Amino acid sequence: MADSTTFHDDNAPFLVRETPRRRLGERSDIDALRQRVRDLGVDLRHNWNDPPPQYFADGRRPSAQPSAGRAPEPRGVTVADASLREAPAQARGEEALAFAMNVAQSALGVLSARRGLALKSLLGVLLALGTAGLLRDWPLVGDAPVALVPPAAWVEISKPYPLFELLAPSLGQPVYTARRHAPGGGREDVLTFGQFGGAKPFLRLNVYRQGDEDVADAGYFVDMARRAAASGLGVLQAELPQALSTRFGDFESGAVELSGSGNVKRGNCRGFRLALEKPALTMGGLMCGAGDEKLGLADLACVLDRLDLVAAGQDRELADFFGAAGVRKSRACTDTARRK
Asked: Which residue ranges does the record annotate as region Disordered (predicted)?
């Protein structure tokens, strides 16, 4: 339909049809705009109501019909592939932005030359279709699958009730902390005496009552490095472990040199650990002598023999183990007192 212009005089308005010359000029502009859109790669016959395509991790769209003899390619992106699709998605976004800029430049050029109603209508339709296409192909953040963060396996107990105690006049009172393995039900109690490099002996003792969770079997040196790191310390040197006899059984124990904050180093330290199957119990940690005092095997054995069970609850197996260990007297503490 040709455009029309309204004129007014003193009596009444009347319509005058546009001249064929102006109509032919506008038609040429419309054809030029359509050709410009085709050059930009827009398919005006595309069904914009189709569901948006999904992309593979490498940025490809799944083929409509699988080739003969091949299984159809999987649609969509898994959680593991979400990070791989980020680069292709960014490239498609940049291409869409460049296309929008080209359409905008073409629109401004045509509007500055002609202001016909038909041309404005066609331009609005083209921009609407182009915008729908951009929204269709633009990789939105919400389209990517979100990986759920699993809950923490270990949960700190804010005010733990002490299950163990270690009474040693030279050590003082411990800082008592505990945590529980949420899925498995295991519990680890930590008793920390003194400070590394202080005037009193330093001891960090872990008592881990295992539950149904899987427990990794680490070597002795790896275990000592992890225990030192948990205390903010580093292992500079470690000797081969030897048997340390206690009323709970034979620990693995060896001399270690540790370093802490402020370039504090101590060579009078020992690492120790004991792993039992029945009950499923692990005891281990690190101990350093007071100041520069030497810490021998007998000194460490005497301290470990002082560990006792305060409450076991319904854990009869743990209670029976400590009950049997309590019957055995600690020769290490007796020998230490005799030497002094």
From this structure: 44-75
